[in-house]
Automatic annotation (TrEMBL):
CDD domains: rubredoxin_SM (cd00729). Residues 2-36 form the Rubredoxin-like domain. It comes from Candidatus Desulfosporosinus infrequens. It holds the Pfam family Flavin_Reduct. The lineage of its organism: Bacteria, Bacillati, Bacillota, Clostridia, Eubacteriales. Its cofactor is Fe(3+). GO terms for molecular function: FMN binding; iron ion binding; riboflavin reductase (NADPH) activity. This is Rubredoxin-like domain-containing protein. Keywords: Oxidoreductase. InterPro entries: Flavin_Rdtase-like_dom (IPR002563), NADH-dep_flavin_reductase (IPR050268), Rubredoxin-like_dom (IPR024934), RUBY_RBDX (IPR048574), Split_barrel_FMN-bd (IPR012349).
Length: 215
């Protein structure tokens, strides 16, 4: 039977003859791991389950779900697309890596948005990752439709290899080609292969929580 090692800092369980050199969860070294027998592990699990109580008063079910979702960490991105001679971009917080080999990501876009229409037609989109001073970009690309307003007017941009417009004053940009999509009700989840990327600045990315805290 393989040995089971528990990180005494975060509780991570490692299975193997020896503890890991580094805990993949909290980063401490092997000296913080202790050998745990199946009996001890079952006891710990039972104690945690039986003794657990929320430390704050709980709201009703629907409010609890909404508040839980607010705690998920999001970035802020400008998703751009081009089709039939029209360019558009929108602010989005749903953009995440799926795999590294191949480089693949997913974005969630509201079906009523003009950007959604352009992505459906072209099968391509761009991602501009905002820095922590990107509030004006988030507002410009997030509060009006591009069907009757040129969001890129007066904004420093360049056109990528795929033809989409990408912002200049951002941390990084990526271009992607859609390989699949999932109907998610009000939104579509686009799965795409990353075909190009640029590193434009050093710095920390804008998060949705940071944007809300100082807007």
């Amino acid at each position: 039977m393989e040995k089971r090692w528990r990180c005494t800092v975060c509780g991570y369980i490692h299975i193997g003859e020896n503890p890991p050199e580094i805990c993949p969860i909290c980063g401490v070294d092997s000296s913080f791991f202790e050998l745990v027998s199946p009996v001890d592990e079952a006891k710990i699990s039972t104690e945690v389950k039986s003794n657990f109580k929320p430390i704050i008063p709980q709201p009703d079910r629907e409010v609890a779900i909404r508040q839980a979702l607010y705690r998920i960490s999001y970035g802020l991105y400008i998703i751009s697309a081009q089709a039939e001679g029209r360019d558009n971009g929108q602010c989005a917080n749903t953009c995440f890596q799926i795999t590294s080999e191949p480089a693949r990501l997913a974005i969630g876009i509201n079906k009523i948005n003009f950007t959604h229409e352009l992505i459906q037609k072209s099968g391509k989109f761009g991602v501009s990752v905002l820095n922590q001073t990107g509030h004006l970009h988030a507002r410009r690309f997030g509060y009006r439709t591009g069907r009757d307003f040129d969001k890129f007017e007066g904004v420093a941009v360049h056109r990528g290899e795929s033809g989409v417009l990408l912002l200049n004053d951002v941390l990084v940009t990526m271009e992607a080609t859609v390989i699949g999509q999932l109907d998610s009700g009000t939104h579509t989840l686009f799965l795409a292969d990353v075909t190009a990327g640029e590193i434009l600045q050093e710095g920390d990315p804008m998060t949705y929580a940071y944007f809300r805290s100082i807007k």
